[in-house]
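agent: user wants the structure for ABC transporter permease subunit from Paenibacillus phytohabitans. delegating to structure tool.
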Amino acid sequence: MANPMVQQRGTELKQHKSWLSYVRRNYILYLFLAPAVILTVIFKYVPMYGAIIAFKDFSPRRGIMGSAWVGFEHFQRFLSSPNFYDILMNTLKLSAYGLILGFPVPILLALMLNLIRSAKLKKNVQLIVYAPNFISVVVVTGMLFVFLSPTGVVNAMITTFTGKPVSFMSDPAYFRSVYILSGIWQTAGWSSIIYVATLAGVDPQLHDAATIDGASLLKRIRHIDLPALRPVMAVLFILAAGGIMSIGYEKAFLMQTALNTPTSEIIATYVYKVGLQAGDYAYSTAIGLFNSVINVILLVFVNTVVKRLNEGEGLY
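agent: tool returned. relaying tokens verbatim.
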């Protein structure tokens, strides 16, 4: 009777040989994949070594390994700081409101684009709605300051009806609205591409059959288009919710003024100020690591919830 260990070893060798033969046959594909893997390792995994700074009293002169360990001192310092709650809530509110208000817009835009029958008109509309995505954040912020200034076009119309301008860019009450709405305007068209591509794969005969059966436009969207979009919507929602704490500092920092700081100061801008401007690298690294851990927790939680609500379909 053959030894089970010998049989298992033989099976492993066969699998190893078959894998090597597969790689040899398709080595061109692996060569195409290599640059992406190398760049991901260099720019995503290698920098993880720098996370050690969060647990050290880092000094550029002594280096990472030469600096003394301080454990969770920097995390405790951030959690006990007087502005921790305000910064955390500003970040969560800005992300959550942006997700709630901005996530459905690309879906609605894709559904509307899918209803356009003229190919030429559809291309022109797509060109118009995709264009804002290619405008840099600096230019968009500059446009906001020009249009929403007390002497800008928007306030000129408001003054006509109310008699006084509105301080959109300096009043903390308007910061989130301006930030979120301008972000939706800039990214909605580009974000709708994947939904438009998904709808393009829906069999037109399903719509024809539903029309013959007397289904209205809304019923066709509900029973044909939305079920086709549901898997894509689930994945994109999980990714968006998992990155709810990952707001880039650029736009918030550029829109920030001395007057709207109570609502515009988020974790990203705070890290930039204490890390690059103040030079407290260890403290800023600890804040950034705290932010990343919260993102991972949210990603796992949202993925679990979506899988339960979406018949087991999730990100992983």
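agent: one observation worth passing along. The chain has a mean pLDDT of 85.
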